[in-house]
Every structure is written in C-alpha cells, then in structure tokens.
C-alpha cells in the first residue's frame, strides 16, 4: 500500500482525498497557497506546505514545485484530484519519471484521451458512435466555411485539450464562425495552455449521461450511470444517479461502450466516459475524463463504494477486490454544487468572509466542503465551495430530502447559488425529468423569479 501521498489540490477535493487516505492508514501531505492559508484540511493533514502566493500558475499548477515537495517530504505518491493538473500528460509523466506513483492512468492514456480528436477516432474504431468532428489545423477561411457547411449548423467549437466547458462555443451561422473561433482559442489557451480547437456537430438539447468505471488493468467494472444534464455555461450544477429517464437497453449500451473504451486503452484507475443522448436514444461519445469527478459522490451513495479508496488500492498494485456482479445500485442520489456566486447579479463570483455557517445533516445526507465559520473565500479559484449530496429510496423522495437539506443550510457573509438551486427543485419539468443541457439556459429567468418569490415569502414570515 502507498505509504505517504501528496495531495495536489485544494478545498473539498483535497479534504475528500485526505479522509480516504487517513482511513487507509496513508500519511498525508497537503500543499496550499497563501490565499488558502485558512483551509481546514491544513490542520487535519499529517504535514502541510505553503507552495506559493495566490495564483494557480504559481501554486496548484506549478509542476516542479509540487514534485519537489513530494521528493523532499518522501512521498511515494501524488493524488491530483480533479481540475488543476489532474489531466495533464506532462505532469503525470514528470511524476512517473521521478519514480513517484501518479494516482491515475498511464500518462500516455491521459495524452490519448486528452486529445479529443484522437479520442473520437479511437471510439469510432471500436464501434462507439461519435458526433462528426474536424480539427482546425491551419485551414484557410474558405476551407473552414466548407467544413462547417458539410457538418451542418449549428456547430460547436471545443478545445482539443482539457474540458469543463472551457473553450466551448456554439455557432449558428457562418457570420459568427471566425469571431467565435478567435474567442474559443483565447479561452482554450488561457485554460489549458493549448489554443488548438476543433469543430463538432452540435446535438440539439441532449441529455448528458456519464458512466463511472474502475479498472486495475486486469479487471474493469462500471458503477452505473449519472445524469449530468443540468449545466450553466457548460458547467454542471446538479447531478444524480442513476438516470431514471433512459431505457435499460440504452444503459447496457453505454456500459458496454465504456468498458470497451477501458479495454482498448488498457486504462487503470477511476475514470468517466461521457455521452450525449438525443430524444430518440441515439448516443454519442463526448469525452473521457481520466480522473476523479466532482460528482463521484452520487455514485458512492448508490453503490456504497469509496471511489477514492479504490484509486489508492489500484495505484498501490493491490487491484480491484470488487467484481461486476458485486456492484449493486441502491436507491437514488442527487448532488447540488454550492457555488459562491450571486444569481441575481448574473452569477457573478462572490468572495469574502463566512460569518455564520450551519450545515445540513440527517440520514443519507452529506455536506462535502472545507468551509467553516470565519473562513475567507478567496477570489483566485473556482467558485465551488462545497456540495450537498442526499440519497433516498426513490427520486422524488431524494428531491424532497435535498430541499430539506438546502433549507437547513445557512451560509452568511457571501452570496451562493443555493436559493437558485432550491427554486429549481420545484420546477415541474425538473420533477418530471425533462432534462437536457440547455435546460438552465431556457429556464433561468423562470427559476430566478421563483427564487425571488420564495425569498419574499420567507422575509414576510420572519
């Protein structure tokens, strides 16, 4: 078993990894920036090192500094979490070259699946449907226009490296194409250090369904699917497992496609294969995330499997102790992401001190976060400050439980999206499962008006 791990992340991600490591008897070293000097996990880890000032490029993206810390503190492994360097081929290779265990797949697999065009070619080769896509590589303006016409509008511009919606833009006509390409390249460069993008056929109003997998190189299993269609600006806001609104026949196809991908790449570790599903249950490979996902918790809730612990075991060479027939789906789980944003001000980021905090509890209710009273939310990083995850026997009961959990949650001193998410939980189309990736965009004004109404009623009662 791994003896000591450097956790190359922050916030609730770092805290989740730390907890699983401690339960396995693994020593922990956490890194933090000066802006994160008040993080709770600093005091829970065996050791902590300040790695730099404030900005990500100098701290959580500083490959050499992270590896130096690992070596100086005799860590035999690095866990990248999600975001930051978790899908960086260069970082993974540097870690491995230094003789340190990278808790994730082989760097070459990260490189292959990180290139969205090459990943699509692989999936086509093994018989998995993909949306038509073409890489932009120095084509003339005339050639680009012809590519778009051949694919057919609307199209989607996407970064070839990275994910999370960065560098992604919808284009509905030729008039928009070149301006949109320039913007997509700038965002891709800023987010991933790589301005290469590609053009993909846009699937109108699809569901976003993903399959969680685990593999030790000899054995691969799936942990069912997650419904991740509720997104704003391509950023997920709410996830649930399983998806009740697609057929078992389609689910089996998605499981098979996912395991075929794992076997074709000789993948090891935890990973997620993402698909788009249209109204006729045609499905298309979207991408593979070669890391832990923010939403892994809903899968843990319905399966009882600690995915981070499995990552540690696989990376230690112990292998999977679970067979596919051992994996059971029990109940329904929903997760809402808590973002420090102001929904009434176009979801602008909100920072500052949390001067009061009360967190939800109760049966099958998780509050995954590193925040506490008097915690200072910095302006330098992603706005997600936590997650509320619930589970019950049926979807409607889980929705009711999540409403109750949000009602209990009090975070004062900063703005959050919890009021918005609470209002969403009463929307009829949400309750009926009529979900697609443009759902929030189409419903945003309705949900905000509902949020204002709820807030007014609460104010009048008080």
The CATH architecture of the largest domain: 2-Layer Sandwich
Regions with little confidence, pLDDT below 50 for 5+ residues: none
What is the radius of gyration? Answer: 22 Å
Indicate how many domains the architecture comprises. Answer: 3
CATH-defined superfamily of the largest domain: ATP-grasp fold, B domain
**First-to-last CA distance:** 55 Å
The strands making up the biggest β-sheet line up spatially as 14-13-10-11-12-15-22-20
The number of helices is: 14
CATH domain class name of the largest domain: Alpha Beta
State mean pLDDT (0 to 100 scale): 95
CATH topology term of the largest domain: D-amino Acid Aminotransferase, Chain A, domain 1
Helix content: 25-40%
| Count of strand segments | 23
**Rough shape?**
globular
Domain ATP-grasp: 120-316
Organism: Peptoniphilus porci
Keywords: ATP-binding, Biotin, Ligase, Nucleotide-binding
GO molecular function, one term: biotin carboxylase activity
Verbal overview:
The protein folds into three domains: 4-103, Rossmann fold; 132-201, ATP-grasp fold, A domain (Dna Ligase, domain 1), CATH 3.30.1490; 207-461, D-amino Acid Aminotransferase, Chain A, domain 1. The protein is built from 14 helices and 23 strands. It has helices at 11-23, 63-72, 89-97, 107-114, 116-125, 141-151, 177-192, 248-265, 296-303, 307-315, 395-408, 418-424, 428-431, 439-461; strands at 4-7, 27-33, 47-52, 77-79, 101-102, 133-135, 155-159, 169-171, 197-201, 207-216, 220-232, 235-241, 268-277, 283-289, 332-339, 341-342, 348-349, 352-353, 356-358, 365-369, 376-377, 384-392, 410-412. The strands form six sheets. An eight-stranded antiparallel sheet has the order 14-13-10-11-12-15-22-20, sandwiched between helices. A five-stranded parallel sheet has the order 3-2-1-4-5. The longest helix is centred in the last third of the chain and has 23 residues, at 439-461.
């Amino acid at each position: 078993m791994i003896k000591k791990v450097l956790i190359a992340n922050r916030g609730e991600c770092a805290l989740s990894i730390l907890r699983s490591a401690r339960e396995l008897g693994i020593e922990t070293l956490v890194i933090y920036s000066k802006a994160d000097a008040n993080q709770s996990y600093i005091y829970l880890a065996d050791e902590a090192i300040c790695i730099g000032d404030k900005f990500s490029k100098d701290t959580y993206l500083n490959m050499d500094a992270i590896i130096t810390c690992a070596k100086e503190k005799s860590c035999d492994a690095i866990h990248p979490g999600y975001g930051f360097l978790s899908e960086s081929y260069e970082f993974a290779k540097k870690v491995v070259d230094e003789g340190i265990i990278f808790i994730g797949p082989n760097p070459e697999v990260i490189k292959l699946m990180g290139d969205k065009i090459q990943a699509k070619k692989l999936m086509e080769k093994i018989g998995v449907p993909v949306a038509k896509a073409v890489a932009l590589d120095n084509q003339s303006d005339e050639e680009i226009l012809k590519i778009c016409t051949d694919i057919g509008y609307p199209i989607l511009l996407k970064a070839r490296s990275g994910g999370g919606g960065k560098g992604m833009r919808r284009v509905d006509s030729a008039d928009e194409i070149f301006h949109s390409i320039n913007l997509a390249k700038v965002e891709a460069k800023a987010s991933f250090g790589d301005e290469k993008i590609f053009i993909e056929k846009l699937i109108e109003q699809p569901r976003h369904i993903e399959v969680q997998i685990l593999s030790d190189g000899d054995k691969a299993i799936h942990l069912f699917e997650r419904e991740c269609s509720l997104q704003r600006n391509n950023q997920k806001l709410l996830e649930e497992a399983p998806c009740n609104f697609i057929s078992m026949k389609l689910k089996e196809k998605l499981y098979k496609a996912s395991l075929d991908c794992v076997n074709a790449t000789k993948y090891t570790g935890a990973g997620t294969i993402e698909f788009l599903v249209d109204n006729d249950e045609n499905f298309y490979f979207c991408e593979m995330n070669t890391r832990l996902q923010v939403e892994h918790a809903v899968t843990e809730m319905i399966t009882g499997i600690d995915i981070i612990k499995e990552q540690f075991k696989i990376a230690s060479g112990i292998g999977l102790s679970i067979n596919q027939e051992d994996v059971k789906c029990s109940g329904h789980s929903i997760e809402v992401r808590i973002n420090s944003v102001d929904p009434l001000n176009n979801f602008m980021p909100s920072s500052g001190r949390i001067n009061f905090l009360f967190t939800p509890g109760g049966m099958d209710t998780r509050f995954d976060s590193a925040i506490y009273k008097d915690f200072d939310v910095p302006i330098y990083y992603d706005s997600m400050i936590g997650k509320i995850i619930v589970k019950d026997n049926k979807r409607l009961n889980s929705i009711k439980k999540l409403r109750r959990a949000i009602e209990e949650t009090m975070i004062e001193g900063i703005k959050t999206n919890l009021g918005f998410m609470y209002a969403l939980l009463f929307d009829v189309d949400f309750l009926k499962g009529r979900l697609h990736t443009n759902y929030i965009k189409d419903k945003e004004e309705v949900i905000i008006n509902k949020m204002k109404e709820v807030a007014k009623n609460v104010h009048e009662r008080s």
